[in-house]
């Protein structure tokens, strides 16, 4: 599920997720998500979902959890590369109204001005 991460010189984080972002994946990643929210409090966290092919309520719950925790600490969560069924589900549930969603990293960098995000 989580295949790689990259920290920018500004202290922001890019997470690259792959495969299914579902209950099984979230169960094994809960502690890591908690650590990310603590370690990157006050910073931007970009979740690259370009290679996510399945998303369920647990995956959405994990995204909302990170969004709320990061926002409470003065940070922000951004989604990029979401496509197909995961994108349709996030839009249907109006998650994109709370968590900014971009076509790709280039579009996100252009609109937000976040620098150093791995392309």
TrEMBL record:
Domain STAS as annotated: residue spans: 10-95
**By its UniProt entry, which Gene3D superfamilies does this protein fall under?**
STAS domain
Checking Pfam families in the record gives: STAS (PF01740)
Signal peptide residues are none
Q: Which residues cross the membrane?
A: none
InterPro entries linked: STAS_dom, STAS_dom_sf
Lineage: superkingdom: Bacteria
Q: Which organism is it from?
A: Echinimonas agarilytica
**What protein am I looking at?**
STAS domain-containing protein
Its Gene Ontology molecular function terms? anti-sigma factor antagonist activity
